[in-house]
Amino acid sequence: MTFDRTADDYYQDELMRISRVSPISGSEAFLITTKKKAVLVDSGFAFCADKMIENIRAVLGARPLDFILLTHSHYDHASGTGRCRLAYKGLKVIASEYAAKILSKPSAISVISELNGSAAGHYGAESIGDKLGDLGVDITVRDGDVIDLGDISLQVIEAVGHTKCCISFYVPQNRMLISCETLGACADEHSVAPGFLVSYEASINYMRRLLDMDIDLLHIPHFGLLRGDSCREFIKRALSTAESLKDFIISGHLQGKTDDEIIEHYKDAFYDELLQSIQPVQAFYLNASHIVPMVIKEVLK
Length: 301
Prior knowledge:
There is one protein chain. By secondary structure, the protein is of the alpha/beta class. The chain has a domain at 8-174: Metallo-beta-lactamase, Chain A. Helices cover 40% and strands 18% of the residues. It is built from ten helices and 13 strands. It has helices spanning 49-60, 75-78, 81-87, 97-102, 106-123, 200-211, 229-254, 259-270, 273-276, 281-299; strands at residues 8-12, 17-20, 30-33, 38-41, 67-69, 92-96, 139-141, 146-148, 153-158, 167-171, 176-178, 217-220, 224-227. The longest helix is centred in the last third of the chain and has 26 residues, at 229-254. The chain is globular.
């Protein structure tokens, strides 16, 4: 397989430019450039990272890549980091404390390597084996911290729910939220697949917090950018979908259904054609196997 998706600018104002640099769908990575700094938000799959770096260089030219910001530690968001370190010697990786802990574990790196190999096979691409490089985190941040990029600043928002290590970033200068998958995944601005794998309660608290914020631009992972009123409407839809799924799971449990039966009913009710386009059925079942028992435990504790 050849990776022929080139760098694509999809937002620019007087303060910042955003370029999609991932060479393949599903590998999450986009580049933010200001007059003073260049930041890669998430680093995508490792097996296609070298092509991603070509796309980054097409945007930056001779400029350095200053930071990688990781929204969380999943392999489709974080495993290209080591390849980027080889290309840009001075860059620093920024993530939550929990993500740093995960990415320091040999067992986690082994799983990430295995998943990259599986993903490479799925896409018909060549695997890089265990040549991931250094996936470690240099700077840890927590809720309320500020990352200075010169013309803009990024305010860190804790966003536990999809994982324990999720964070998002808010740019007050243009009221942009760079969200993580705790908000959910989508194929378009109207459909939302809930993404709360570790905590339903933390996820809805995050969404409610977003509704209290002034957001005029919303970046959604694996999708892109929403503007204006669409931002608030999407957040409200994500919250409503999460609450509906919770009610669906609890109702099935109280009717005496097994977790497996609830998962099948969940698939019939929620896994429509749009969501199928962004989430393979194997991934649906894997996520559902975490979501169903977790919701029952949290809600009925």
